[in-house]
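[Automated response] Your request has been received and processed.

Submitted sequence:
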Amino acid sequence: MKKLLFITLSVTVLLSLCAFGAGAYENEDWYSGLEGTTINVFNWGEYISDTYEDGMIDVNAEFEKLTGIKVNYVTYESNEDMYPKIKNGGASYDIVIPSDYMIQRMIAEDMLLGIDTGKLPNYHYISEEYKNMYYDPDNAFSVPYNVGMVGLIYNTKMVEEKPDSWTALWDERYAGKILMIDNPRDAFAIPQKVLGYSLNSTDEKELSDVAQMLIEQKPLLQGYVMDEIYNKMESGEAALVPYYVGDFVCMKDVNPDLDFVYPKEGVNIFVDAVCIPKCAQNYEGAIKYINFLLDPEIGVNNALYIGYATPNTGVMEHPDYAEMKDNEYLYPSEENMPDVEYFRNLPQETLDMFSSLWNEIKIHGTDNTHIYLGFAAVGAVALFFIIKKAVTKKKREYWYNFPEVK
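Generated structure:
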């Protein structure tokens, strides 16, 4: 799904964490009063610091120690995977962390509870740059968590020259070594940029053009992947993949042969933010959890572990974050900043077209001959016995019950 990091902390980080000590968080008394309750958290896979190894902090364990609130933690791989689970109400979650365009959709569909940021002592750490965003202009339903962009990860030992364009993903020299992100919105974004279309196009012809490009790419692919990207790129099994910059930072720590570029056609920029779904059963517990995530000590652990840019000024000013703050991949200088565009929520008819085209792309070229032969054999046997009964008993109702063979 989105994220994972194996950044080795410096001696400075380790010493400061030891000196700081687990549990010494801001406004500790504020967290009391809900001991024995539970919150259900629904988040991207590998999107929170969850270990005490290498001087890190297990965020959920620390929250439980501080508050006495039990955390049930469940993960998903994409916004599109998360959305129906919240929409259909099959389970109750108190915290969810969608991306900007999905937050915009969930607000429009009345799926989120309001968040009174005045109840969050640590909200002042959110940078003004990430307040009043297009998806939540009044800061009424979300609190920013992480910031990132999508770019092109490549293996310098397998790719002949440094790519500068998304078209590298259609380069026949790398057939069988190209991975594609298994997420329709992100996958469509790449040919949209190549063709000069907006990431938020609703034009049917443009979307059809994009789908055709993805169909043409399919014979070159090793596969469609999400979290599997880590193993494949870190092990040198694949040469090229479009993915999130924070995950690249994590992968490069494991495989130094990897590098990353923001293609010249432009990229998607995104903000993931913490929300409280309407199905929440422990609203006050969710508020405490959000405030805990904003604590600079928790924020710096998450930022180092996950590898994404942070909207938290307390993290940016934290001495342990000094090296990451200067990371050109996460925080490109003005001259290296790519052209960026946010995803927006799209009309339902466009979302339906996305879904239909994505299904066509995924099944295109799949060899289903053995399946069709199996259906034909079963159908032939069934047809034989039904005809035999019909001739013998002259009963038309047998035909009525017979499924049409296609």
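Summary generated for your ticket: Confidence is low (pLDDT under 50) at residues 1-23, 367-406. The chain has three domains: 11-147+269-341, 148-268+349-363, 372-400.
If you did not submit this request, please reply to this message.
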